[in-house]
Specification:
This protein is of the alpha+beta class. It has 2 domains: 19-132 and 347-355, NADH Oxidase (3-Layer(aba) Sandwich), CATH 3.40.109.10; 136-339, NADH Oxidase. The protein is built from 11 helices and 10 strands. The protein has helices at 19-27, 67-86, 148-155, 171-190, 192-201, 206-212, 225-235, 238-243, 245-261, 276-295, 314-324, and strands at 39-44, 48-53, 89-95, 112-118, 165-168, 202-203, 216-217, 265-271, 299-302, 331-339. Strands 1-2-4-3 form a 4-stranded antiparallel β-sheet, covered by helices on one side. Strands 5-8-10-9 form a 4-stranded antiparallel β-sheet. The chain has a two-stranded parallel sheet with strand order 6-7. A hairpin with a 3-residue loop joins strand 1 and strand 2. The longest helix is centred in the first third of the chain and has 20 residues, at 67-86. Mean pLDDT is 95; it is low at 1-13.
């Protein structure tokens, strides 16, 4: 069994003979807002995994209701389920075992209780093979449309009845979303708390990424090592960004517009409700969408700012809803661009043992 650790305790080796350790190794490769990796894991008995949210890794300015954090929990659980199946195990997932959660607070109670049970009828899912290959690409995509039949294959890769997928490769829509996405980035970074959170998890140099083992940076935008060095050390180092937020904001807004405008298609996931269960379901659906896109040779990049839950984004959320044709009775949970692009470096990841708490 894996050794549980305190936050200040050195990481101890994980027991490779424990199937739960293997499943967690793949689960932590899931996406999360700002790549905060906000998951806490504990083991009970010989089969059980308890999953909670790590409050120290929430970003309350950018994600005030914790909606994005719960979506990341869903992606974690999907990876866990795929890894279990690949080992001939059934993952019995019980969401919110302590009771129905608050929809506006992130409570300090388990999000999921998972039992890994041997099951001779379980078959591996081919999407498991894509987990180590799936990375968020922030680079500009090639000027090539994603065909509708690819969107159809992606839709068929998950249970879309509860979390339907919308898709369009219409040029006018793509450019309209590029404009509002750039405005959303400007709004996000205009607030001091949100700016601080973004700066906290932005990795200006490779050394920062290696040390922190979380966050995101220029590597995920496709810059080579030489360019990353000059940007992070001379053009826009951390010290300049911190002392001149306008420079960082201008760069981010320009990059956001260019990224979105290069999309070969725009996808979105919506739900009828906006409860925690809906958000976790969205995360599981989104992870399968991204894994299938990866299998089809497609790059994918979530655009989370437009869906932010703080009051200053309400106007642009309404504009986005009109652009997508989503009725007021549904909640848009994920918005992302898809396209064709050369691979980027993966975002850094903490060691598996860092996620274990007693």
């Amino acid at each position: 069994m894996c050794n549980t650790i305190q936050e200040t305790t050195p990481v101890t080796p994980l027991d490779p003979s424990d199937a739960r350790c293997n499943a967690v190794k793949y689960a932590i490769l899931a996406p999360s807002p700002h790549n905060t990796q906000p998951w806490r894991v504990a083991f009970q008995g010989d089969e059980r995994i308890i999953l909670s949210i790590d409050h120290s890794r929430l970003i309350p300015g950018c994600d005030p209701l914790g909606r994005q954090a719960f979506i990341s929990v869903g992606a974690f659980l999907e990876n866990l389920d795929l890894a279990a199946k690949n080992s001939g195990l059934r993952a019995d997932i019980d969401l919110f075992p302590a009771g129905w959660p608050d929809s506006r607070l992130v409570q300090d109670t388990p999000v999921a209780r998972v039992d890994l049970v041997e099951d001779p009828h379980i078959e591996p899912d081919p999407l498991f093979l894509q987990i180590p290959l799936r990375h968020t690409s922030r680079r500009r995509f090639e000027r090539r449309k994603v065909p509708l039949d690819a969107a159809g294959e992606i839709t068929a890769a998950y249970d879309f009845s509860l979390v339907p997928l919308g898709f369009s490769h219409d040029d006018d829509l793509i450019h309209a979303i590029a404009d509002v996405a750039a405005d959303a980035m400007e709004i996000e970074l205009a607030d001091p708390e949100r700016f601080r959170e973004t700066l906290q998890y932005f990795r200006f140099t490779d050394a920062e990424a290696h040390t922190a083992q979380d966050g995101f940076g220029h590597a995920q935008s496709g810059y080579g090592p030489v360019m990353r060095f000059f940007i992070g050390r001379f053009i826009l180092p951390r010290s300049k960004a911190a002392s001149s937020p306008e420079s960082f904001s201008r760069m981010a807004k320009r990059s956001t517009r260019e990224q979105a405008a290069s999309a070969g298609g725009i996808g979105w996931l919506s739900t009828k409700g906006d409860h925690r269960v809906d958000q976790v379901r969205t995360g599981r659906a989104f992870q399968r969408v991204h894994l299938k896109a990866c299998a089809l040779g497609l790059a994918l990049h979530p655009m989370s700012q437009l869906l932010a839950d703080y009051p200053g984004m309400a106007g642009l959320r309404s504009v986005l809803r009109d652009l997508l044709g989503v009725p007021d009775t549904q909640a848009v949970q994920m918005l992302f661009r898809m396209g064709y692009a050369r691979p980027v470096l993966p975002t850094p990841r903490r060691r598996p043992g860092d996620f274990f708490f007693p």
